[in-house]
Amino acid sequence: MTDTVPFRSEETLDRFHRCVSAFTTRLQAVSAEQWGLPTPCSEWDVRALVNHVCSEQRWMAPLLSGRTIEQVGSSLDGDLLGPDPLCTWEGAVAETARLVDRPGMLEQVVRLSSGPATVARYCDEVAADTLVHTWDLARAVGADEQLPGDLVEAATLIVEPWVSPQGVPGLFAAPVGVDAGADPQTALLAMLGRAG
């Protein structure tokens, strides 16, 4: 994953914050009895899916603060949500926002498992993953499944280079068939193994 997507950096933070906000809106709709429901991610129920997305936010803070993956180690393994998942999520995204919004932060370089990347690229990757999992969460709990069209377009450009016939190992299932005239959201979801 390299810095090859032709986005202007001034748009990066807006996309990132809007993707986080979209997930927050769906998370606020989760009722107490829905945490164990299945999601389009076959290995995750609602709680596990939210934990994954929250984990991505929690990973950003130490990496943006200069720590390495090795230094973080296993400290963010397991269930991070605790007794109040929404509060945990809101705390995690507030910490991340405080860091990514710093002047000049987007041009900094972080070392990811895939190699070095600018913070702008890292934000775009997390935003794309968050957006797709926003749809997963909405589908699981019966919330609004419609995603903003410009965010879908950006996410498609970001994830397209990752996808192989086997999907994205460890992240997304193999692509599923879709009609040639499918709308952009349906096409993005199908590319990542989801029947929209």
Overall description:
By secondary structure, this protein is mainly alpha-helical. The protein is built from seven helices and two strands. The protein has a single domain (9-148), classed as Up-down Bundle (Four Helix Bundle (Hemerythrin (Met), subunit A)). The protein has helices at residues 9-28, 46-64, 69-72, 85-100, 119-141, 149-159, 184-191, and strands spanning 109-112, 115-118. The chain has a two-stranded antiparallel sheet with strand order 1-2. β1 and β2 (115-118) form a beta hairpin. α2 (46-64) packs parallel to α4 (85-100). Residues 1-6 have low confidence and may be disordered.
Topology:
Elements: H1 9-28, H2 46-64, H3 69-72, H4 85-100, E1 109-112, E2 115-118, H5 119-141, H6 149-159, H7 184-191
Antiparallel strand pairs: 1-2
Q: Biggest sheet, open or closed, and with what strands and sense?
A: 2 strands, antiparallel
One letter per element, helices H and strands E, the order comes to HHHHEEHHH
Fraction of residues in H or I helices: 40-55%
Kindly report the oligomeric state of this protein.
single chain
Please identify the top-level CATH class: Mainly Alpha
Number of strands: 2
Question: What best-fitting shape do the alpha-carbon axes yield?
Answer: globular
- CA radius of gyration is 16 Å
Q: Number of DSSP helices?
A: 7
CATH domain topology: Four Helix Bundle (Hemerythrin (Met), subunit A)
Low-confidence stretches: 1-6
Label the CATH architecture.
Up-down Bundle
Going by CATH, what is the homologous superfamily?
dinb family like domain
β-sheet strand percentage: under 5%
Query: Could you say which structural class the secondary elements and strand pairing correspond to?
Result: mainly alpha
